Amino acid sequence: MIGDENVVPAEQRRKIEGLHSAGSDLDRKYWLALTMYAVLAALVWFTMDAGKVDVFGKPVELRLVPLILIGGFAVRTVLARQADRIRRGGEKGSS
What we know:
By secondary structure, the protein is mostly helical. It has helices spanning 2-47, 64-88; strands spanning 52-55, 58-61. It has one domain. It contains 2 helices and 2 strands; from the N terminus they run αββα. Helix 1 (2-47) packs antiparallel against helix 2 (64-88). The longest helix has 46 residues, at 2-47. The protein is elongated.
């Protein structure tokens, strides 16, 4: 089967090209996610009431609760990107 010999290198080439494009795609999604976290945090800050709630006997601003959650998601996103860079062995030209 002559056609089978040409199929395998083409599939490997697509996989290799897919890995390179996946890196730039992930980089774009990373910055988009951080931007969305910032927009969401701004919306929380400007739309939520500045009321206070008691947590362990101390008053805490109510709007800080969702901001802490959004910050946790942002930190998780940053750590996941760093772990992906380490797994890939680092990319040239990236800081």
